[in-house]
Specification:
Elements (H helix, E strand, L loop, with lengths): L1 H15 L8 H8 L5 H36 L11 H15 L10 H21 E2 L3 E2 L1 H22 L5 H11 L8 H20 L1 H7 L3 H6 L4 H23 L5 H13 L3 H25 L8 H21 L1
Antiparallel strand pairs: 1-2
Helix pairs in contact: 1-13, 2-3, 3-8, 3-11, 3-12, 3-13, 4-5, 4-6, 4-11, 5-6, 5-11, 8-11, 8-13, 12-13, 13-14
């Protein structure tokens, strides 16, 4: 965990100097301590630092959401993107953007709330359709239901794009690809309470997740109220994913890769797994966003595309292992 934290600091320093306008290490140091020019301060404090903070928060939210979903469902392939939760949040945000295209003149703090509503609606449909009274939640049924719900929501979003102006359509297309679009401090303040409160809640419930991993029969024997705890944890996972999607768009696979890498580093005990997943997720999205801003300057590649290039082969690798 200390190594991951140091890696994040290193990438933050690199990311602060990544962009069309370069800042030398000395200029960066002076600007951080208030001795830079007004132009350097504007670039660093108003454009780059908010985006860096948002990338870390989004990665933390998506990774911890995936860790919760994998623990609750006992499904190694559970991820808010694959299960359609991100798509539900994205649909609500897209509806909001289509009717209020100028996000600078509308209340930013409503975005995570709308995304949470959309994500909850999608998660509820998935939960109801994949649950059977005698069997509970089957991992395979959950995965297939989530994929089907995500496909249906994606179709609805494509239909919605037909009513958008060319400018709004270009913005929505970039947002759907997973771009950290809300890069100012208002978006950071809108997202921060959701990430802090829900990750703390997940950490408090870490022992419950450990018990749920033992199976329903054992969990009941140990005194856990399975359905109540499962619903609370699912709501926390949905809240983390929805709030993150509201400022980052459709970044997939972070909730899959983050917990798996964390589990290989520190084991399956959720008291350690949850904070490690948060660090891995924050580092992954920050690296992806930094690469996306650097590789085709002055143009940008959305962070979601960079993560997908890594995540799609990793998903197939995990699927092969599970089948074996």
């Amino acid at each position: 965990m200390i190594s991951l934290f140091l890696f994040i600091i290193l990438v933050v320093v690199i990311s602060m100097n990544t962009g069309f306008i370069k800042l030398s290490p000395l200029e960066l140091f002076y600007t951080l301590f208030g001795f830079g020019t007004s132009e350097q301060a504007l670039i660093l404090f108003e454009f780059r630092l908010p985006r860096i903070v948002l990338s870390i928060l989004v990665g933390m939210g998506l990774a911890v959401s995936g860790a919760i979903l994998q623990g609750v469902t006992r499904n190694a392939l559970a991820d808010p993107g694959i299960l359609g939760i991100n798509a539900g949040a994205g649909l609500m945000v897209m509806l909001y953007i289509s009717y209020f295209p100028s996000t600078t003149n509308t209340p930013i703090f409503i975005l995570p709330v709308l995304a949470f509503i959309g994500a909850t609606a999608a998660a509820s449909c998935i939960y109801i359709l994949s649950y059977k009274r005698d069997e509970g939640i089957s991992p395979v049924r959950l995965l297939l239901t989530g994929v089907a719900i995500a496909a249906g929501i994606s179709s609805a979003m494509i239909i919605l794009t037909l009513r958008l102006s060319p400018e709004s359509y270009q913005f929505v297309a970039t947002w759907l690809a997973g771009s950290i679009w809300g890069s100012n401090w208002k978006f950071v303040l809108a997202l921060l309470p959701w990430i802090i409160i829900l990750i703390i809640f997940a950490y408090v419930k870490a022992n419950v997740l450990n018990i749920l991993n033992l199976g329903d029969v054992t969990a009941v024997g140990l005194g856990a109220s399975i359905e109540k705890e499962r619903r609370l944890l699912l709501l926390a996972a949905v809240g983390l994913a929805g709030a993150s999607v509201s400022v980052s768009g459709g970044i997939g696979f972070v909730g899959l890769i983050g917990p798996h890498l964390a589990r290989q580093l520190v084991g399956a005990r959720h008291q350690i797994l949850i904070p490690t997943s948060a660090l891995v997720g924050g580092l992954l999205v920050l690296v992806a966003d930094t690469i996306g801003r650097w590789i085709l300057q002055p143009s940008e590649i959305p962070a979601g595309i960079i993560v997908a290039i890594i995540g799609a082969p990793y998903f197939l690798y995990l699927l092969t292992r599970l089948e074996d």
